[in-house]
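Researcher: Structure prediction, please.
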Amino acid sequence: MTIRELEKRLEEEHYDLRALNISKCANYDERFNLLIRDDGNWEIFYGEHGQKTNPRVFDNEEEAADAFYEIVRTNISKSLFPKRKRPDELTIFERFDGAINAGRDKITLGLILFCLLLGVFFTIVMLAVQAIDVWFFLWIVWVVIFSILTVIWVKKVHTK
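Model: Predicted structure follows.
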């Protein structure tokens, strides 16, 4: 099979694509790699802590794609993802949960939620002291904008 057919098959069979890397750049964050090397060969290996484990080099695309599929099939169990949904089928709560559990996304989500809560807090303070003026409306806009940005961002987290 070709690389495109491999990618399509892996997606259709619902393997966890976050554990795989098919590109020209190696990824050593605990991923199975299928690299297209500059010399025209194809390399398969497991990358972890900056090290290659079990590297294998192939002369053609079909052999490399078939071998990579076998590695994925034997090492990444689909039974871990029996009810895995496509990203566009996730509910907003599932997307939000996925955003929280994704390591690098925690900082972004934290900043968005902090700004949102800051806006809510100052809106409540302004209502309590009855300071309904231009600043009050600016805080309302702040809360609305960050609410919209949070929803948009969470939707994009799982559609990459």
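Model: Residues 105-128 form the longest helix (24 residues).
Researcher: Thanks, that helps.
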